[in-house]
Amino acid sequence: MYVCGITPYDATHLGHAATYLTFDLVQRYLRASGRKVKFVENITDIDDPLFERASRDNQSWKELGNSQVALFTSDMTALRILPPESYVSVTEAMDSIIVAIEKLAATGYTYECAGNVYFRTKEFLPNLPIPEAEALKIFAERGGDPLTPGKENALDPILWVAEKAGEPSWDSKLGRGRPGWHVECSVIALENLVGADYLTQTNQSNYEIDLQGGGSDLIFPHHFMTGAIGKALTSVDFASSYVHAGMVGLDGEKMSKSKGNLVLVSNLLKSGFDPMVIRYALLDSHYSKDRMWSNELLSNAQIRVDNLRSALSRNEVAPIDQLLRKIVDALADDLNTPLALSLINEWVDGNESGKSGGSIGELSRFLDSTLGLAL
């Protein structure tokens, strides 16, 4: 599985946390089911927002990126989000990305325009996940340049950005520059999950990787373009499954840096909130649904976690066998965490009747391994 990681120019907010919690649950479920999971996540340490903030703050882009990666991994650890097998940064993968772009150029998938190198999307556009008019609007909002004169198609994304003053650049057959956003993920996923020789392998499958994941804001253009570039490189569909986490909002609006309405995980932790309460609050909505964050949600989660901890501190608790089976069934049904939590709450309430026969240790270990609730 490959999950799109952060662009490290600002702190982790609850939208990030909800996304990475989703794929933490996927990884936990697959491992608990006996599967071997190879999981890679990228770090986009070469991107316009990173350079812009570093310039604004008169700071090295490398220093800024390193500091935000450290904060991100600290937040994820606090929330008990299992790390991937590998975090791979764009700068680490640069040589491989350049080789891939040069192959795309050699096979006719690129052209030059306004000094940059673009990817030809023409053959992939029949598979657009949304109407073209909507795609053009979203493309412009999410880093694309549909209005650049001379492009073959308004939706063609930049593969190679020509060298700019004050920004890092690398040598390639296409001139000095740096890669565009989408190709980075295609290459990092293929090289680290399929193998370093993915460009020359003969794949007998219908797809290269099992799962591509991220927030629902990546459905288009990022995951569409990543898949198109991946297929252009290998002639095989990029991923069997695409899984997307819903957005987290605040006060009726999507939570985003541009709106300035972020709730930062690090700020909640500094304010004394138990990371397990934050995690519980995020689990209380289905991963695929957009949801609103509120103080009430956090307060309710605190009450539920306190009640569960109290139940787990008893000498005798109600039987757990049926509870464990039902939670597994809930998670097997598209990670239905709201149902899983409601089952736990029913069990907690049932303890008030003085039932006994359950194993506290077994339940505690189960909740940790499946839901990441270390209580």
Automatic annotation (TrEMBL):
GO cellular component: cytosol
InterPro entries in UniProt: Cys-tRNA/MSH_ligase, Rossmann-like_a/b/a_fold, tRNA-synt_1_cat_dom
Gene Ontology molecular function terms on file: ATP binding; cysteine-tRNA ligase activity
Keyword hit for Nucleus: no
GO biological process assignments: cysteinyl-tRNA aminoacylation
SUPFAM superfamilies in the cross-refs: Nucleotidylyl transferase
Keywords linked to the UniProt accession: ATP-binding, Ligase, Nucleotide-binding
Pfam family, one: tRNA-synt_1e
Magnesium keyword on record: no
Domain tRNA synthetases class I catalytic: 1-302
Protein name, as recorded: Unannotated protein
